[in-house]
Amino acid sequence: MAPQAQAKSSRVAIVAEVSGDVTVRKAGGSKSYTVYEDMSLNEGDLVSTGSGASLVLRTADHDDEITVGENAEVSISDLTNQGGGKTSKFKLWAGSAWTKVKSLVGSEDDFEIETPTAVMGVRGTYLYTSVNPVTGQTTMLVAAGVVSATTVTSYDAGNADKPNQERQHVTVYPSQQINLDSRTGVSDLRVNVDYVNPEEIVSSAPPEVIQALLNNIQGLQQENDQIKQKLKQGSMQFDPSGILKINNNDDLNKVTQNFDALVPNLAKAAVDSRKLSEKAIDEANQKIQNEQRKIDLNNVPPIDRSAGLDPEVAQLKQQQQASEFNKAALEMQQLAQMQQSLGEMLDKLMAEKQKIDEANQKALEAANQSAMAQYMSQLSGEQLQRFLDSAAANSAPQGGGTTASGGSGGGGGSHSSLKQPPSPTVTSPQQAATGFNPAVVQARAPEDTELRIYNGSELLASAPGAGDRDVALTLKTLPEGTYNLTVVAVRSGMTSSPVYLPAITISDAPILISPQTDLATNTPIIVVKAPIDTKVKVMRQGVTIAEAAGQGDQEVSIPLTGFMGGVIVLDDLTIVTDRGGLLSAPVAVPKITVDQSMAIFLQSVTRQNNAVTANLAMKHFVKPNAFYAVEAHLVYDNRLSYKGDGTVVRSSDTVFGSRSQSVERLMQSAGAAESELIYAASAFGADSGAIEVPGEQALVSIPLALSGSDVNSLNVKLIYYKVVDRTGKVIAEVNLASQPDALPVK
């Protein structure tokens, strides 16, 4: 017999907490009401939070909680009892929310968080969800438990009347997040899942939502402990629709360690961004009984981003990254083509405008000449002579000149000296600029004119026009400040219409070129620009530790020396200019960590008959100076040469040879007397995370061929190396050209 039908019955959600401007639009209605504590909400109700507002909703019969942050919209799409199960479905249209779902009693229980791009199926889970109101991107982070994320993509398979749907789902585990964007589809949803990015999560989450996570820290730790126990006992397996593939206990341990590292990393990111105070962390720690599991902001365990990652998923991610790179390259190419087309159109418009301006100018000149001729034709001979003498006197250069004379027959002549000169053309600067004294302006004007630059009525510079050639006008020394200058052309006492220059800011403060961000290196160098007649000083706690002469717009490198090994943190440096004892405003320098223990060096140069091997090694590159790419340059005279095809013989004993997903290359550039060899290496894929060399480890063995048998004064020299991390940040960059690391060939 058919089973007996079970009728649905409605349930309610209770407003447990409310802060700020929060409103609700009841199901089927158009009017909004202010939300208050203990208010009952029903299926179909839409809740909106204003700026700085927050809300905590709790299902009345199951104690599930949703903490909703500011500028959010949440609707209750399903809140019912049916048969033996409870259905709770909420849709997050915008904003962010923290969800705590009590363990579902039976298989018929159903709890979902839906966004415009995905549905999150939840079972006994703590999770964070956000929807970017501008891009529509959904971000979901699992803090404890397991979530099945599902997307539905509609598409036309050749028949507009019969649209199809493609459903994809992926399983997301603790410490993992998924980013979904309706505008970019993928063939496998697993490429959108990765381990947590704490800074990204914290940047999108309001403080109330982050605080809700901390308030539940003990519960999520307990739930993750249960999951870890089941995984270790084998009573639970990772879903193949996720990104993990566990091959051994070591893989499993790394994955579960990430479970525990999630909250400390989020807490540190929240404190660093000032969304939470350290006091909030202390209060959260009071809820944790196990001392070893309390949050220590000074000792936050890192997230291992490659822990248990399925090699197939890693390959899919690489392919997706390559596809996105190619797409971006294509878009850049299309943009360049559009810019070229726009440039060509602009050139045509400018050419047409120039033709119109020239035609108008000719018409104006013809009208002026006609009017002048008509006026002069009405003068008597004596009046005409006085008029010509007056015009000649006005056009004569200062300090005297000849007076023009003419007979009565000159009445119909052309007098170009009486015309207003055309406005000059400014070629530099083309946009607002900041620079030093003396500032230089470049402009063009006819050869029979004089270029003049004014600050109000004050003349700053002048020079004869040079036709189609640029004229450099060096301005007089100006006090610090921003100036709106004008340039004119003057001919025979007549001044052109003024041309306004872009704003020019004169400053004595130095301009910091590098470093632009925090830097760890073993050879610290500060690169600046500063006025020519000043000294640039690097100051530490009011004491000058290095200085150099300013070179204007030319960059000046200032090495910092005198460090006696070990690790030194320079987080209080500033640069100033000194002009005759008058110091400029200070410019802060990002933190520089000087670690002179880490290095790349020539370990040995060995010879066997005509085969020479140069061995490079690395030492002491550990967090936070872990890296992923290296470049090193060797120099030797032409008795030695590299004959290979650029490939490097792989060795499991070397830094990159021990990684399956890495590439190493050699390239020689031969000169007249010496040759330079460049070694470059990089990790990629699953091995592209931070590489560490805690002690000393071989880097590469470079085979060289010896011509002849003379090795007298034959050296291999290391002249330069550079080490960068995954983001391209320079970990170490050393130029040894003046004092190379050299070893003789023996």
Provide the structure class. alpha+beta
What Rg, in angstroms, do the CA atoms define? 37 Å
Provide mean pLDDT, rounded.
83
In one word, what is the shape?
Answer: globular
The percentage helix is: 10-25%
Name the poorly predicted regions. Answer: 1-6, 154-163, 398-417
Q: What is the count of helical runs?
A: 7
Strand percent estimate: 35-45%
Q: Give the N-to-C terminal Cα separation.
A: 95 Å
Q: Let me know the largest β-sheet.
A: 16 strands, mixed
Number of strands: 48
Describe the structure.
This protein is an alpha+beta fold and 746 residues long. It is 20% helix and 40% strand. It contains 7 helices and 48 strands. The strands form 9 sheets. The protein has a 16-stranded mixed beta sheet that branches. Strands 41, 43, 44, 46, 47 and 48 form a 6-stranded antiparallel beta sheet that branches. Strands 20, 21, 24, 25 and 26 form a 5-stranded antiparallel beta sheet that branches. Strand 3 (22-25) and strand 4 (32-34) form a beta hairpin. The model is unreliable at 1-6, 154-163 and 398-417 (pLDDT under 50).
Summed up:
The chain is an alpha+beta fold.
Walk me through the topology.
Layout: E1 8-10, E2 13-19, E3 22-25, E4 32-34, E5 40-41, E6 46-49, E7 54-59, E8 65-68, E9 73-82, E10 85-100, E11 110-114, E12 119-131, E13 138-155, E14 164-172, E15 176-180, E16 193-195, H1 198-204, H2 207-215, H3 217-233, H4 249-272, H5 278-285, H6 311-377, H7 381-395, E17 425-428, E18 433-435, E19 440-444, E20 450-455, E21 458-464, E22 471-474, E23 481-483, E24 486-491, E25 494-495, E26 499-500, E27 504-506, E28 511-514, E29 519-521, E30 525-530, E31 535-540, E32 543-549, E33 552-559, E34 567-570, E35 573-579, E36 582-583, E37 587-588, E38 592-595, E39 599-608, E40 611-621, E41 629-637, E42 640-641, E43 662-670, E44 674-683, E45 693-706, E46 715-724, E47 730-735, E48 741-744
